[in-house]
């Protein structure tokens, strides 16, 4: 999983989720992205690189922070640009699925 994809996943995970579940969700999303057909994964990776460029520059200049990045990502959920909105929707779908499917299994296994 690319740096920016990891940041998006962290922003989309529900508040109050414990660190063990967060790690499991992140691992699930990572495995799912790696399992994508190459032509689809290339598109998602290209979008991650393009959307992550500005936040990466902000961090390099010491101006970016996690709260600002989280607000930006959550704002993209209602973007007028289809590709941006669908990018967030894809990752959010993976996060929600993992939270719903993995959390009960983690609790039962603990």
Task: Explain what this protein looks like in three dimensions.
The protein has helices at 3-12, 19-35, 38-60, 66-75, 82-109. It is globular, with a radius of gyration of 14 Å. Helix content is 80%, strand content 0%. It starts with a helix and ends with a helix.
Question: What is the overall pLDDT average?
Answer: 90
Q: Quickly give the structural class.
A: mainly alpha
**Backbone shape:** globular
Supply Rg. 14 Å
Q: Based on DSSP secondary structure assignment, what is the total number of beta strands?
A: 0
- For the record, give the distance between the C-alpha atoms at the N and C termini, rounded to a whole number: 27 Å
The biggest sheet, with number of strands, parallel, antiparallel or mixed sense and barrel status, is:
none
Model regions low in confidence, pLDDT < 50 over at least 5 residues: none
What proportion of the residues form beta strands (DSSP E)?
A: under 5%
- SSE string, helix = H, strand = E? HHHHH
Individual helix count: 5
Question: What is the oligomeric state here?
Answer: single chain
In short:
The protein has 5 helices and no strands. By secondary structure, it is mainly α. The two termini are 27 Å apart.
What order do the helices and strands come in, and which of them pair?
Blueprint: H1 3-12, H2 19-35, H3 38-60, H4 66-75, H5 82-109
Helix pairs in contact: 1-4, 1-5, 2-5
């Amino acid at each position: 999983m690319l740096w920016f994809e990891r940041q998006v996943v962290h922003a989309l995970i529900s508040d109050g989720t414990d660190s063990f579940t967060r790690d499991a969700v992140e691992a699930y999303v990572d495995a799912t992205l790696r399992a994508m057909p190459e032509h689809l994964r290339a598109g998602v990776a290209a979008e991650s690189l393009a959307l992550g460029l500005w936040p990466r520059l902000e961090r390099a200049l010491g101006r970016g922070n996690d709260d600002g990045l989280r607000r930006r990502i959550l704002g993209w959920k209602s973007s007028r640009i289809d590709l941006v909105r669908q990018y967030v929707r894809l990752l959010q779908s993976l996060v929600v699925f993992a939270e719903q499917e993995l959390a009960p299994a983690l609790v039962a296994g603990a």
